[in-house]
Amino acid sequence: MNNSAFCFMDAEKETCHDLYELVVPCMTAGGLFVADNAVNHEATVRPMLDRAPGDRRVDAIVAPVGKGDLAWRKL
């Protein structure tokens, strides 16, 4: 995977944590990542939701708009 400045993830929710760990190193500094359905599938994506806010590589927030999105910016 090449370095990316933007990633929108709308994948099988069971794979989200693994995909998060694959995507973070490939993002450029300042790159933006958005994961769809972070609120209405909270139980399934919980590992990713627990990881992102404490991950020193990113600045993350869950936006409770619609079905909810996890958004983060690569530091």
Topology, pairings included?
Blueprint: E1 4-9, H1 16-23, E2 27-36, H2 42-51, E3 58-63, E4 69-74
Parallel strand pairs: 1-2
Antiparallel strand pairs: 2-4, 3-4
Helix pairs in contact: 1-2
Folded structure, characterized:
- The protein has helices spanning 16-23, 42-51, and strands spanning 4-9, 27-36, 58-63, 69-74.
- It is of the alpha+beta class.
- The protein has one domain (4-74): Rossmann fold.
- α1 (16-23) runs parallel beside α2.
- The longest helix is centred in the middle third of the chain and has 10 residues, at 42-51.
- The two termini are 19 Å apart.
Please report the distance between the alpha carbons of the first and last residues: 19 Å
Task: Name the overall outline.
Answer: globular
Main sheet record = 4 strands, mixed
Radius of gyration: 11 Å
Low-confidence runs: none
Provide mean pLDDT, rounded: 94
Q: What is the CATH H-level superfamily?
A: Vaccinia Virus protein VP39
- Remind me, CATH topology? Rossmann fold
Number of domains: 1
